[in-house]
């Protein structure tokens, strides 16, 4: 890839806490990626619109509110509707019960990172699983 990996870091839903999102955004930036942070309380529609406008390679969503089973698959569904899902890696993170992770993966979330995951694990996953290749 001739340019830095572009990552949209998003906080879907009504979450009011974004410390984790900011930590991952900084780690990705420090790893040489270009990071666009949407801020708090984004709808799936806003996230997909931003992903398309910014021509991102990755959508990384952080969620703590418990609405992950609805909001994360909704973003995947909208990316598919816009015909860009095949180009964008979608990952999630936050307080997500282990029992919910297989269903999220079935619905198109490539990986889910829970609290305590070293940021390097996320960085390595992104680099190894990009859908767009230059």
Describe it.
The protein has helices at about 20-30, 45-55, 70-80, 100-105, 120-130, and strands spanning about 5-10, 35, 60-65, 90-95, 110-115. The protein is built from 5 helices and 5 strands. The radius of gyration is 13 Å and the shape is globular. It has one domain (about 5-130): Rossmann fold (3-Layer(aba) Sandwich), CATH 3.40.50. The mean pLDDT is about 95. It has about 130 residues and is α/β, with parallel strands linked by helices.
| Number of self-contained structural domains | 1
Side by side, the strands of the main sheet go 2-1-3-4-5
- What fraction, in percent, of the residue positions are helical? 25-40%
Q: CATH-wise, what's the superfamily? A: Cobalamin-binding domain
What would the keywords be for this entry?
134 residues, alpha/beta, Rossmann fold, 5-stranded parallel beta sheet, 18% strand, globular, Acid_CoA_mut_C, cobalt, isomerase, Cobalamin-bd
Chain-wise SSE layout:
Elements: E1 6-10, H1 19-30, E2 34-37, H2 44-53, E3 58-63, H3 68-81, E4 89-94, H4 101-106, E5 111-113, H5 119-129
Parallel strand pairs: 1-2, 1-3, 3-4, 4-5
Helix pairs in contact: 1-5, 2-3
GO molecular function, one term: methylmalonyl-CoA mutase activity
Enzyme class: isomerase
EC number: 5.4.99.2
Summarize it.
By secondary structure, the chain is of the alpha/beta class.
């Amino acid at each position: 890839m001739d340019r830095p990996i572009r990552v949209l870091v998003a906080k879907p839903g009504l979450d009011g806490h974004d410390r984790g999102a900011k930590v991952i955004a900084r780690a990705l930036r420090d790893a040489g990626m270009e990071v666009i942070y949407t801020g708090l309380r984004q709808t799936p529609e806003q996230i997909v619109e931003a992903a398309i406008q910014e021509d991102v390679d990755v959508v990384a969503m952080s969620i703590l509110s418990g609405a992950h089973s609805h909001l994360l698959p909704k973003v995947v569904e909208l990316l598919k509707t816009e015909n860009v899902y095949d180009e964008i890696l979608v990952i999630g993170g936050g307080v997500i019960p282990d029992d919910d992770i297989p269903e999220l993966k079935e619905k198109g979330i490539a990986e889910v990172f829970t609290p305590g995951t070293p940021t390097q694990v996320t960085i390595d996953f992104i680099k190894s699983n990009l859908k767009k290749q230059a």
